[in-house]
Amino acid sequence: SAVACVVVGAVSSTLRELYQQGKIKELPLLETEVLQVHAPPFVTKESVSSETKGQGHAPAFTRIQRRRSFIKKKRVRPGMANGEAAMGSDGGGGTTEDISVPKDLDLIALPQLCFPGGLQIASEQREDSYHYLVFTDVFGNRTHAVVVQYYRPIQDGGHQNGHRLSSKSSHLYTAYGICVISKYPYYNALRDCLSCLLSQLKPSWMGDFEERVKEFSAKLALVPIPPPGQLHVVFSLRPLQIGLPSREDKDRPAVDLDLHLPFLCFRPRQLLQIITSLLTEQRVVLFSCDWARLTLLAESLMLFIHPLVWQHPFVPVLSSQMLDFLMAPTAYLMGCHLHHYEEVAAETDDLILVNIDDGTVSSSSSDGVDLPDVPLAARECFLTRAEGLQMHYDLEVCHLGSSTDVNDLRAQRKQWQRKLNTHIQNITLELIVNIFREVHDHLNYEHRVFNSEEFFRSREPTDQPFFKKVLDTHIFHSFLRDRLNRKMDAFTRMELSTRTEAYRLKSMTESPRRPTMQELARKYTSPESQLSKRLGASLPNLGEEMLFSVLETFDRTLIGLKSPQKPVRCFKLPDFPPPLAYQCVQNYYQEMITLLDKAISGVASEDSSLLACYHYLRGFVNTVAGKRLDALEDFQNLYKTDTDVFPGELVNALVDSLQDGERAQANRRTEIKRLISRVKKDHERERACHDDEAVKRFQLPKKHMQLEDFVRHVQESGIVKDQGTIHRLFEALTVGQQKQVDPELFRVFYTFWKETEAEAQEVALPASVLEHLEANECVFKLSSSVKTSHGVGKIAMTQRRLFLLTVGRPGYVEVSKFRDIEEVKISSAPFLLLRIPSLKIKTTMRKETFEVNLKSEVDLWHLMVKEMWAGRKMADDHKDPQYMQQALTNALLMDAVVGCLQSQKAIFAATKLAHFDRMKLEVPMMVPKTTSETLKHKINPSLDLTSPQAVDVLLYTPGQLGVSSDSEGDGNPKLWCALSDGKVVVFDAASWSMQQSQVQVGSSRVNCMLGVDRQQVWIGSQNSVIYIISTRSMSCNKQLTDHRSEVTGLALGDPKVAYSCSAEGTVMAWDVSTLQVRKQFRLSCDRLQSVQLCSGTLWCCARDCIMEVWKNGTLHRKISLPEQLCGSPTAFSSFLLYQEKEQLWTACIDVGELCVWHHAELTKPFQRIQLPDCAGVTCLIKVKNQIWVGGRSSGKSRGKIYIVDTQRHTVEKELVAHTDCVQALCSAEDRYVLSGAAREDGKIAIWKVE
Question: What is the pTM of this model?
């Protein structure tokens, strides 16, 4: 990572004067200047050919360069200079530069940063002293440096041109600063490199000083940066072995420092204060007597708040001349020497002063630190975890003997440190996840809106001061942008893996948020009995409700911290060549490539992430060695091993730098040609994407809204997402007037909705009432006090029932569960001389009618109860709980409409929302008995979307026994569901809760899915790519890009071979472990649409024929469409091989029959089975000895399933499955069948198999 080396020292003329003076009473501080700069390229091809002055390396640094800013030159072609490898361009960052001293590193400021306390002449030899620097350019890119100050005796004539002018030494010592600069934060590694350099410099004399430093810089320039992943790079600089750790993934920086240092300097509570001051963007100043601590602590803090990124000035070391930086008005994190503490505190207000040496955090304001506390649940969890850190290495090694090898000792310590660093990163990531976990619930992805008011309002009152400050920061804004882009980073991974089952189930219902009985019970009952004693003992006296949230947080994230550490592999570089000779350097690269070839051939094909690291590294070395096409081939291999580490920018730069000859060669190699066009496309798409990345805060509308604007505003407000519901709400609010909603009406409606939500939070139900209700019930509506046939009280509505909350001694009287209602009507009860409107509810559970004198509220309650009753009935009939949720939303919207219209037409307006009640009147929704008995449950995969999507493909993957839940992923069976545009939703098939709301595979329609070896799911897309998802991590990090047109079918041969086919007729056989194509051939047919393997031959189904093909691609037999169908415009839609009976079953797109053929006799079908009321078949599957057929009926486009008996060839059952065509069928271990429907319906039905 060292990309430049700068030597700084005292000005020569001053040293000469000092030497001549002899004895000095007071040792002065000297002015410093840059003495040498060594930056790549160290050798170039050109310098060899022209043999400039007989040396094969770049000319030395001149005096003029010392004075000016060091500006980078643009690179013409990559790979000519060996400087590219400079531990400094792993291609993730800017590779378009040649001289790798960072753009805005001003050499004028460098001397004072190398000697931040000034250069002091000494009268005796001093210890070498190291410290660390960070530079930030105008674009926010950081560059890192390690500086060593070491002392040597002043010699006569100073260091005139590096030649000693006299052998007489003086008794005065001057310091030299050697500064190694890199784009990567390899602090420990660079410190070790400098230690090795000093061990060589000390015995030598000044004459070869410059040569040695130059050679040292050139060696470091040969070291490649390890790719993200589990591969570290190790090299030898005598006497030490030095290791460069890799980044864990593309989004994280490498960690090469000791992350427990802040825990040794501060107590966990103080650390939380410092983290809070960063999250709230304060002006923070670090102080220490030790310059090295400043940067190490500042960098650790940056890692603690990851993936949030500090966006402000970051200068951990300020020299004494730079203290005016602290007057800057913006947020910043800076550091300076402890002896400036009083001066800084007195000069500037509102600073957070962090004294590293004392472990204190204070404020420069007279009234002390005004920092809000971190939210309680997250805070308590962090404090408990921090107590458990094992930070003392001595305890770790007290049972071991003393090793005599320094490198063994270092390796042992490194391994311990790595483990501790991982633990600390997990704890700090967990803190960030616990603070911001619920942001997700207040985001609207479609319109890129964050409802900040709503989020803030739903925080605990004690946590609100913290969020009040955080929500407006830059750091939080860019975090929001990543969430809205659905970035799969460390935060998302931990947040997903630690979601509770309760949270998943809650997110399955789109109901408006209200506290459940369980949450209310926590509020009003004592939780002592349920407390975890161990944790409870360590907590302060919290309110009970808070205790629960702390405990839940603690349990929930425990799983997130157990993630096992991946084993680390090291790639040892060959010994360095003479680094200033061009030919030697080229040979060195070749030697590295040979070693990498050997490493690649030794890796098991299952270990694809390690293979990816080696390919990346070899691609990188090939780039630097000028072998661009080989490099591109290596990067192409990342698609099959791990696309997550694909270095887009590097490959893009590489493609741009191809010469004409190379381009012509690339065009002849299909893999590379495809990679080039793909990289260009991706690059263009990325550039286009950056424009619409803004995050909006929800705001009430300011102008009149027509339907489209109204839909957007309601969705942004978070009240309801579903377009159909919003259209009905628009009708209701615009009854009898012009079709637009004015902003004032919207404001009143929104306010009413929010107030009703807030009132529900305040409902206080005594324990005697709570015990009658279920844990997840919520009270959604309370009437005013009314007289009823069972005493006086308030009528309460939950999602399941109506009950009377009696006044006086609060008690519970059940009115009715919605499913038990028989009749609801309005009548009037006599009261003195008046008639008072009342509501009569007749139920199956009670003889007498329940009567409530609801007076003016009666019409609204009448509408609401009828809608809830109709919704309950639909939900029961269709076994689809979402109908109930929708009815509840409708009822609450009616309430809000009546509340905000306050006029004669309010009730009429509310009837527009009585969706299910109207459906009940219009079409009697009778579900046939057979359908009802076979149907188990329905789920809605489009819940997170604004309108239903078609279910294109379904796949069930069985569970894995013995997979513990704390390893990545769980062992439960899963249902994979492909929706439009490459969205895949994953359900846990044990509880049918949504496990992953979407895995994105490209942006085209998915055509087929296949479970392979229980570890991966292959997904064939319309964009001709096969995406591979790991079932453990649920992420898609491999792609097979060999097909030329849309992938239409996938099938498994033996466990080691998979087959795929694409529309234009190509069939490929894949080696599952290496992902290489074993064989491919092309069939001539009209749109090849699926492939299956049956006793050694492949069966391929196209629109116009079905072919049996030998594995080498030779056609064996072919079936054309049955004669009677040849004239009509139809085509095969699917086929099924029934091996036990040696039969083939076929179905056509728009014919309501099945044809059954004998394997031996394929000239015509021996049996044709008519499907009643069927207009076409889309899919067939075999379950036990039944064939399940999915299709559409000829009536109102309805999805039907036919169950056919394979013995008698008759239709056993006819199921009315969906309101739109059945698109997909799959079997869950022959116990259930799952069906998915087209867009009008968009649901998945789960059926019992007899």
Answer: 0.84
